[in-house]
Design a protein that fits this description.
The protein contains 24 helices and 28 strands. It is of the alpha+beta class and 677 residues long. The protein has a five-stranded antiparallel β-sheet, covered by helices on one side. The protein has a four-stranded mixed β-sheet with strand order 4-16-14-13. The longest helix is centred in the last third of the chain and has 17 residues. The N and C termini lie far apart (54 Å). 52% of the residues are buried.
Amino acid sequence: MNRFLLGIAFTVAPVVASASCPAVTVANDMGLQGAFPQQFELAEFEQAAGCTLAFSENPDVSALNARLVGNPTDLPPVAERLPDEPLVVAPYEQIGQYGGRLRVMANSTESGTGEILSMRQVNLVRYSDDLETIVPNIAKGWSWNDDFTELTFFLRKGHKWSDGHPFTAHDVEFWYHDMLLDENVVEKVRGIWRTGGETFEVEALDDHTVVFRMAAPRPGLLAAFGDDYAQPFQPKHFLGQFHPRVNPDADKLAQAAGFESGYDVIAAYYGGSDWKDVPTLMMKDPAKIPALPAAVVPTLESFLIAEETSEGRRLVANPYFHMVDTAGNQLPYINEIDERYIPDNEVRVLRLINGEADYKGHSMSLPDLPTLLDNQEKGDYEVVLRPKNGMHVIGFNLTPDDEEKRALFGNRDFRVAMSHAINRDEINSVVNFDLGRVRQYVGFDPVPAFATEDQVNYAIEYAPEKAKATLDELGFVDQDGDGFRDLPSGKNLTLNIQFGTQGMPATTVEFIAQDWNAIGVKTTLKEVTSDEYRAAQSANELDVHLWNQGETVPSVLASPEDFIVPFGSFFSLRNGMLWARYNESNGAEGLEPPAWTRELEEVILAWQLQLPGSEESKRLGRRAIELMQEGFVFTGITEAPTPIYRSNKLKNVVFPKMQGAFRHVYSYRPQQWFFVE
């Protein structure tokens, strides 16, 4: 018996319309609603509307395709490029018009690019813009078995990669077994792709059906596909030719292209990680491109990278993208994305107020809100405030190489005292304009109903005298009379804080430093790029970690890494790097983590296996928060809304319900954005 059988089972090939279809939008649904909000399967739409849908294409599609180095230049008609079963989406406001260049800014490649990534992102399923409903995307449907140990996806017949080659279930199977589980390609598989510590069995039952089998129930796996940045498919026809497991002549083929092995070619294309927003061969080794099949790997995304330099990159519309609007126009409407790397926040703000961008939500800072609001008319844009996924969080390095620092930072009483030294109300008033909320970090964001008030308010009281008394008791006192506390050995201690404004506003960090200096803990600041910060954090070089942290309940169901040493990913806040090294090396390197970290991991993994909303799920969720706070790895500062910027010429835009959640704008279908003059 199948549970939660979802998706539409119609199989109707597109034909020339004999009756025009209604131009359904979200604003005017004309009485037509599908099984899922704001979208239809083709047969479902045609049956409901009593019509057959004719397909149209972007008139510039051939010119755009010609900019893709190595992509076949002879494009078949649009009806042959679309799947037999395209996804029909209802635009928010109106049927759009083709053309235009979307101007966006990122801090740098791999840094601040999450929003741009989400503008082109696809996965088997996605969250709708209510951030609760999972809907079909690349897959047209799915089904669970009774005990949530098997998840089956049904793919679209006739779906094609961006080079026109058929996309099938074998590409999903290839991604999991030959890419993700091959240590020559991906060194370590993230926990999101394991259940109960064991990898999945992934099998293509036929060209359009693929099943994920798990060793234990995993009802949250569907959320992983709806939320995660990784794409659970890779083009076997393209990467497989260089994979020794797939092609016995892979190394020979690679050597003819100037590489030592097939794995070297895959690394050049794939980057050794399922995080795909990394520099392409256009940046890494452009001289190798002429000997390879194409400059970039074929994709199912709405846009492909056509040009890349150290200053930015250009992306153009995918001629084989699987979505159409309700008038039959192939999406996306916009021709290209122009992404510029602007590491300086002041320069980014200046460009925004001058109207030199079309959309910006990622890495926006609340202190910049007055400037942005004052210049809306001049720059011809709109700025709104939305809740932000996560909160500003700090954490003392629990495993620094310096043993005396390790003893001090590892003392929980020290960390609690430093929390009490922070005047959060002042930060919320001055930095957040009293728009935020002072609370403690609980791992989940927004705070779930199963969290207690005591957990939300733990150790956030501003009590500098209490903090100083605790530090005195620990022997962390001023021994040389310079006004600042010294380590028990008499050695001076200066907290040299490095921070990136993508993770926390400079003003917030300045207030924290001011408060710590006021209790005699010497603190200095240095602003660095996000990439520099992440590299230093991963190398265990920082005294204090600062970032925006906290995931939605569905996101933690998908991947509970924020509760498992080192308590986050490379792109977020991490701590206890030597504990992580110990776990990764089975005790050969690093430092053994304390027992509470193992219990926390066991609890969150058990929580992940529960049916969401059940009493056992709530109990385990509360216990996970309790253990996180017993360890006091991180301390929360404030949560606050964030500005989001949109050019008035950009239409069909719905601002996110929560910025940063579920792949930023991914849920809000940027493929149907368009420009008007």
